[in-house]
Structures
1.
Amino acid sequence: MLKFLLLIAVVFVVLWAMRRASLPPPPAPPRRNSPPRLEAMVRCSHCGLHLPRSEAVLDEQGRVFCSVPHRIAGPRTS
């Protein structure tokens, strides 16, 4: 009786190992995207809003604005 149980256990382990070997490997975890680059923040000369330099609108004197209407209105004088 003990030999029979041992034989079943060995067969089970062999079948389990064969099945596991035939399975494809699990997919690799997704790669994390690199963190966004830090960008200089600038302040609108009209309303004081802080925004990334790449989104700013500049006038002829190099002053920074958040939008074309604020560039047209010019810097606030207060």
2.
Amino acid sequence: MLKTLARAGAVLDLFTREQPELGVTEIARRLGIPKSNAHALVHSLCKIGLLRRTPGNRYALGWKVFVLSQRLLQSTELRTEVLPVMQALVDRFGETVHLAALQEGHVVYVEKLEGTRAVRISVSAVGGELPPHSSGVGKVLLAYLPREQVRAIVDRQGLPPFTRRTITRWEELERELVAVRERGYAYDLEETLPELCCVAAPVRDHSGHVIAAMSISAPAHRFRRYRDTYTQAILQAARKASQNLGYIPNGR
């Protein structure tokens, strides 16, 4: 049973933004299992709504995945406690504010609010995933992990370049993460998308563990002009969000 569940999870993991549809033959090849086994897995996942059949005998994620994701967002304490803090930032600056967590070495965007001055950022849709090395939220989430865990993530998925400013060397990333821990926040200076910058800070739970990161994103020209203001604002907001989750700074 555990093996079957693990394989079912592996099937779901194959579907990405870049590869939203797959055939049984391709699923079998990627997982290294017989085609008959892949067909049985896909059939079972379709019956419970986690996959759906598309034209041409191909498959895509089913709407049950969306329903479950909405239930998770509605029930998670992290989102409900942090959302008012994020909204206050959007009301103040009119920019895009993100909340993200780390799962299996990838940044997962838990919430995203856009203000009146916000530019559209397609890569950070709620539920979307990105490698963590280029974004402000990703750097924050990596910075508070043990070094060996960060190295394992980098060894597994590399440091792909998104722009000419993206960090692509381990030594440079390691130095950057040390700096993030020391100052308590991280920048993305056109490292994920050209002409887009952000600053991010850690969100802690009641025990002090960093469980998420919050960021303000803005066009590069505006961000550089107001960088200090944005930085102080995200630090204050992240502290407020952490306190909402029960964190007491310095044990007081």
3.
Amino acid sequence: MRKLPALISVATVAVLALAGCSASPSTDKAAGASSISCTDSGKVSDSVKVAGKANAEPTVKFSKPLSTKTTERSVITEGKGGAVKTGDVVELAFAVYNATTGEKMNAGGYGDAAGASITLDEKSGVFPAIIKGVACSNYGARVAVVSPPADAFGGAGNADLKVGAKDNIIFVIDVKGQIPTRASGKDQKPQDGFPTVALAKDGAPTVTIPKADAPADLKTEVLKKGDGRKVAEGATVTVQYSGVVWSSGKVFDQSWGKGGPTPMSLSSVVPGFAQGLVGQTVGSQVVIIIPPALGYGDAGQTQAGITGTDTLVFVVDILAAGKA
């Protein structure tokens, strides 16, 4: 199923959130991805007038309705960074318009706000129009993309976003930067009583739970200390994570080998996860032990195999953070 990056999903109109449907695919898939062809400009994309400073939401003007048979991409600003490569995890800001009705659907990720993250891979599940807009761009570029339904919402459209079956879509995309796939901070000495964490070559963690009762309170340790921005309460962060049930040692959810670097709002995760990350720095890897009361509570999370008495352990690589 094709997906919009979380920035403009129906459930997260204003903010990024962890919804279990990240736009980024496995880094393993990306590593083997073939190069993506460049998309040409055309009369339709060239007719979209974009003005405004870099790293701020642009002013976008066009004559409705716009329609194209194939996706067109016009470069507004070349960008001074290196070329985006297939398999890169890329942070984007963008404004999205219905090219038929002229309505702005959403915009975000500008300035210090966290952008949407995608992996540049045709198999990622992200709208092909977005992949085509980013491919062959430089970091720092701004591009205007006009997409027919085939490269956006498809023939069904999207009733929630008021997109008709024949509506074209305009994406004005800022290629903000490359997001790392793992924490790069300085190694720290592990604390006694915490699970042990072993890392694979790609950075994916394997967690071993100690043969002891789980602590009753929230506990946090830093395994790698980054020197980036501090995570603020309510901020949006991009992370790699693995979640394990203390009692069984089983992984119940993870981004590794699945979603890849995942954007989420700390206002929409379980309390213990947010509390464990606030005050930490980008580039860090942290272990968070979350008691039931600060996790899924008495109800647990049946679909994930979590009961109301389960303590959870998360290993989290903090890759990016926006302001709250």
